[in-house]
Design a protein that fits this description.
The C terminus is likely disordered. With 138 residues, this protein is of the alpha+beta class. Helix content is 25%, strand content 25%.
Length: 138
């Protein structure tokens, strides 16, 4: 039996992320898009809770997406062993400056420029809501 397909439109930045045992391990920070297939290939889990750094996990590690969060098919120990997310590696790839990785993840600079700068790439809740509403109208 094949693993359940995840509808990536159900994944939301800021959603809680849980290990297989139900332990909350962090939040979804970014989704990494493979530029060749234009599909989400990896998720970036934000440091905090039990994580001391942002980590990268393949989207195939997602078991379920429920209203209360994203549930991974990984144990807490497996999540701690995930590779660090190196944001500069993905930004270089998107800008065509070489580097490795799966691509994507570099929209933060573009979004900050469009929204008027500041905030370290994070939008205020008002800006985020307007951004989400604009996305849903398309």
């Amino acid at each position: 039996m094949s693993p359940p397909r995840i509808n990536v439109s159900e994944l939301h930045v800021g959603s809680a992320v849980y290990a297989r045992n139900g332990e909350k391990v962090g939040k979804l920070r970014f989704m990494v898009v493979d530029p060749e297939s234009a599909s989400v290939s990896h998720l970036v889990l934000e440091k905090g809770m039990m994580l001391h750094h942002d980590v990268l996990t393949p989207v195939s590690s997602v078991g379920q997406v429920l209203h209360r969060g994203i549930f991974l098919n990984l144990s807490p120990d497996e999540i701690r062993e995930l590779p660090d997310f190196n944001e500069s590696r993905y930004l270089q790839r998107e800008r065509g400056e070489g580097g490795g990785g799966q691509g994507g993840g570099g929209n933060r600079d573009r979004d900050r420029d469009r929204d008027g700068g500041g905030g370290g790439g994070r939008r205020s809740k008002g800006r985020y809501r307007r951004h989400r509403e604009r996305d849903h109208r398309d």
